[in-house]
Amino acid sequence: MSPIQNSKGIIIPDQHSAPNVAYTTVIFVSSQTMSKFVSIFFRLKSNTNFADSLRRTSLRNLNVRNLMHNRYSVSFPLLCPHRCSSTTASIQDQTIDFPGGAVEFIPDMRFISESPKARIPCYRVLDDNGQPILGHNFVQISKEVAVKMYTNMVTLRSMDTIFYEAQRQGRISFYVTAIGEEAINVASAAALAVDDVVFPQYREAGVLLWRGFTLQEFANQLFSNKYDNGKGRQMPAHYGSNKHNYFTVASTIATQISHAVGAAYSLKMDKKDACAVTYFGDGGSSEGDFHAALNFAAVTEAPVIFICRNNGWAISTPISDQFRSDGVVAKGQAYGVRSIRVDGNDALAIYSAIQTARQMAVTEERPILIEALTYRVGHHTTSDDSTKYRPANEIEWWRVVRDPVARFRKWIEKNGWWNDTAESELIRNLRQQLLHTIQVAESVEKPSLADAFSDVYDVPPSNLREQEQWLKEIVTKQPQEYPANIYV
């Protein structure tokens, strides 16, 4: 039978209840009787026979009728002639209203699994042959935008090929290619607005290309001539353009991620209809900047899009040696950031995901994390030989089977927007333009030596002025040691 409540407001067990069933005594007491109750409780607790002492007290004489004015709930295990073998907590209050939402209490001890049973799926529109997959959905794209996306992808690959060869010829000192990652570059840029502020890593030249940075401007930076926006003070392939809202590339890994969050927070405070966008590789997600940035963005609800190019290799370290989580996308939910995994070699999927992410980031004022699965077909930089740490047949398979440029070309050809004649003409014109830009960039004189000491201090300190004078004297005395197109 069920326990009943007597006239004193005390829950008592029925005599026929099973002896191993535990109940809880609940007495509502007033503030005037609270001190008396506590005194009795601790006095009885010190006695040898707690149960017998409890029965001898005058608790049953407490005036219960007047206790509803100042209600206190006091619970302790009910002690009766039928001693219980165990005591079970009340099923009341099964949640705690903790910051962030109610947390449910459960009696079972459950550890969260270190990995889910199924991996997070990857959003895709086109298969490897450029055909839309069954049940596909994507943001519609016009012919003009699609053709521009494709021509920019081809331009980026041609630029990488020719500038890479120029470095191998000793004409420039360093270069970084984006071969195999053209879709992430160009499709993401196409989905953004010109007012969105970009914080690149060093493999996003395609974003700058889409925004109108010319081939000659690329060449000027690579050859560090006087028309270089960085005045020759940056490594080659470390582009930057204030005009195009593209922050200058820095070699330090992942620092741009936290910078992007700060910029996004500023855009939010200024009520701008724009967001910040930052790119980084899987290796960047292993840096502390990544974790701090995601947490800060989530807490401040900053309109920022994190785009991770997970190409499987952080220089020479495979992702299996970096983390045991389900890639990078799983980390977004841990920090309270809305996230999605996308096929990074599918231009339509990238375009759709980025455009949708931007809409959410700006209108809802929230951060978004996108993990784009891709593969770096080229070497990490011209200072790297990737065949030393990964098999050549793996590289070749991704280059042929998963090529993002070829896949997108098949789709636009199917739509009747491209053909072999247009392809041949594009390749021929690009080669002529690129070779011409190299010749021009090489012939332009280097920046003035004074530019190496400017733009840091409003008024240069004395030690900096002394260094500038010393350098000029060295160049004047030993001109044979310096390029002829450097002027003092």
UniProtKB/TrEMBL annotation:
Per the record, its GO cellular-component terms are: mitochondrial matrix
Tell where it localizes: Mitochondrion matrix
Q: Pfam families given for it?
A: E1_dh
Could you say which EC number(s) this protein's record lists? Answer: 1.2.4.4
Which EC class is the enzyme in? Answer: oxidoreductase
InterPro entries referenced in this protein's UniProt entry, alphabetically: Alpha-ketoacid_DH_E1_comp (IPR050771), DH_E1 (IPR001017), THDP-binding (IPR029061)
Q: Which GO terms describe its biological process?
A: branched-chain amino acid catabolic process
Which CDD domains does this one have? TPP_E1_PDC_ADC_BCADC
For the keyword Membrane, the answer is: no
What name appears for this protein in its UniProt entry? 3-methyl-2-oxobutanoate dehydrogenase (2-methylpropanoyl-transferring)
Organism from which the protein derives: Psophocarpus tetragonolobus (Winged bean)
